[in-house]
Specification:
The chain is 53% helix and 14% strand. By secondary structure, it is α/β, with parallel strands linked by helices. It starts with a helix and ends with a helix. Bound molecules: guanosine-5'-diphosphate. Guanosine-5'-diphosphate binds next to helix 6.
Length: 294
């Protein structure tokens, strides 16, 4: 994971480490290499600019340049700036109401339905009783897929194959969840291969009508700048308050993670690190920065 970003940054650090004491020209060369590494890893230009702004002055300041080991100080700076850019995170989920509604949205194939199952499993481990709701009425197979996942997790799945109105399905599901003593309702909404107005209108209607406590966007971490663009569009239409980035176990360049946070300003809550239903982790900027730096 993050292979190329990691390798490129390591290369930049190695160049600096080999030099012992550094001149301003050495440091500027190191900074240029870091900038290049980020751009090559799919981090958007704006984010790279902000990142470089955050470290350049300090890297060239006396505290770093006159330190015993300036290269180590420089690596520390890069690490801290990565953490700043990825964070802050909101710890856990606020599930203080009797019934808490989480609306999951995203493009088809991003990993939304799988993530619904993973989230339900995570909640069950925390002794919270969730209900999964099949609100993706676009593809009949989506309802079946959620039932299969629900069975694997051991959680109740609400669906209504005769109802063609996703808003009504969500409303009925919330009523059923209340009756069944579920504390969290996870809505698996419809995805599309590309963003279109009909999809956004449907999501907005559900959002207005059901008033979820959390609206999470699921984005595919392997799709680089496409993930960033879709995040921007969803954020414009809905008031997102969390992002789940999936497929970070694959050979991803990782830059999307940095850019999505920047574009939406919304915290990354979870990361998907595999196809298995246990492969969901709370997002930790410190851990992620450490992984990027290797
Ligand atoms: P949806 O269309 O957004 O609901 O996407 P699905 O939940 O059906 O997932 C699409 C594909 O991505 C499936 O094959 C999932 O197993 C896979 N997938 C989902 N999350 C992850 C992840 O974190 N890592 C990997 N490797 N695959 C994932």
């Amino acid at each position: 994971m993050f292979d190329s970003l990691q390798d490129n940054l390591k290369g930049a650090f190695k160049t600096l480490r080999g030099k012992g004491k550094l001149t301003e020209a050495n440091m500027r060369e190191g900074l240029k290499m870091v900038e290049q590494s980020l751009l090559e890893a799919d981090v958007s230009y704006d984010v790279v600019k902000e990142f470089m702004h955050g470290i350049t002055k300090e890297a060239l300041g006396e505290k770093v340049m006159l330190a015993l080991e300036p290269s180590e100080q420089f690596i520390g700076l890069v690490n801290q700036e990565l953490i700043n850019l990825l964070g802050p995170v909101e710890d856990g989920l606020n599930l203080s109401k009797d019934i808490n509604i989480i609306m999951m949205c995203g493009l088809q194939g991003a990993g939304k339905t799988t993530t619904c199952g993973k989230l339900a499993k995570l909640l069950m481990r925390q002794k919270v009783k969730p209900m999964l709701v099949a609100a993706d009425l676009q593809r009949p197979a989506a309802i079946d897929q959620l039932h299969v996942i629900g069975e694997q997790v051991g959680v109740e799945v609400y669906s209504d194959r005769d109802n063609k109105d996703p808003v009504q399905v969500c409303r009925d599901a919330v009523a059923k969840a209340k009756a069944d003593g579920c504390q969290v309702v996870i809505l698996d909404t419809a995805g599309r291969l590309a963003i279109d107005e009909e999809l956004m209108e449907q999501l907005k209607t559900i959002d207005r009508d059901v008033q979820p406590d959390h609206v999470f966007l699921v984005v595919d971490g392997m799709t680089g700048q496409d993930a960033v663009r879709s995040a921007g569009a969803f954020h414009e239409a809905l008031e997102l308050n969390g992002v789940v980035m999936t497929k970070l176990d694959g050979d991803t360049r990782g830059g999307a993670l940095l850019s999505v946070k920047h574009v939406t300003g919304v915290p990354i809550r979870f990361i998907g690190v595999g196809e298995h239903l246990d492969d969901l982790e709370f997002f930790r900027p410190e851990g992620m920065a450490g992984r990027i730096l290797g």
